[in-house]
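For the sake of clarity, the format in which proteins appear in this thesis is described at this point. The record quoted next illustrates the convention:

___
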Amino acid sequence: MQALAEDFRRQERTIAFVPTMGYLHDGHISLLAAGRQMADILVVSIFVNPTQFGPGEDYANYPRDPERDRALAEKAGTDVLFMPEKEQLYPEGYETYVTQTHLPKHLCGLFRPTHFSGVTTIVAKLFNIVKPHYAVFGEKDYQQLAIVRKMAADLNFDTRIVGAPIVREPDGLALSSRNKYLAQQQRQSALSLNRALTEAQQMVARGETRAECIIEKAVQIITAQAQTGIDYVRICDPETLEDVAVVDRPVLMALAVHVGQTRLIDNTMLVPQNGEQQ
C-alpha cells in the first residue's frame, strides 16, 4: 500500500482516502462518493481497530462482511481497497500511541476513556501508509472528526480532512453499522434521538436560547421511550467541545444513548435566529 501510494504521488495523482471499519452502509457510500469526486484515486480501508474498543465493548462481535464490503466498495468506484490484518498494524511488542490532551475529555471521551487514543493512533498509521491528499470522515461521529482535524494540524499531516453530512434512513435514524443490533421495538425507541434533535432545532427557531431548557426537553423525549439510557445530551462549542449555556451562535448539540445494549450517537447544529450556519 505504501509503495502504491508513493507511485501515485510520483505520477502527481491525488489520493482521497476513506477509512472505515467495514460493514458498509449508505452513510459510508456517501463518504466514498465524496472522495471519488475530489481526487484521482479513491482508497478505502476496512479495519476493525481493536485499540478503540474498551473492555466489555463489542470488538469481538462487531459486524463484519468483507465480501459484501468488497462488492459495495467496487460498485462505488473504489480504486484501492486496503484490508490489513491486525498483526500487520499492531505486531507483537507494539507500544506507540497518539493521544490528545483536550478534545477527548468531552462527550464520548468521558464514557470511553481509551477510545480516541485508539482512533488517533490508527488514523495516524493509516495516513502514513496511504499518504492521502484528502481524507473523508462522517459528521455523525462529530467528536472523532474534530479530533482527527486537530491531530492532522498538530502533527503537520499533508492531508486535508473533509467532513461529510450525516446520512439518515427514511425514518430519521442516523445510519450506523450498529443499527443491526436493534430489535424492532428498540428501533422505534431509537427514533427518539432524531426527534429530540429536531425538537431542539424547532425550539431555537422559536427563539429559545437557554441550553439547559433545550437539553431538558431532549431528555424528556428520549427517556419517554422504552429501553433508553442516556450517556449524555450536551450543547457545546463546535471547535472546543466545551459546554455552552446560551445558544447565541451556531453550536453543536450532541447525544449518546443506549437503546437496550446498543450505544447510538447523533448530533445536529443549532443555529439561532440571528446566527449563521458554519
Summary: Strands lie at 15-20, 41-46, 80-82, 134-138, 160-164, 228-236, 251-259, 262-270. Residues 48 and 62 are 8 Å apart (CA to CA). The longest helix spans residues 184-205. The chain has a mean pLDDT of 97.
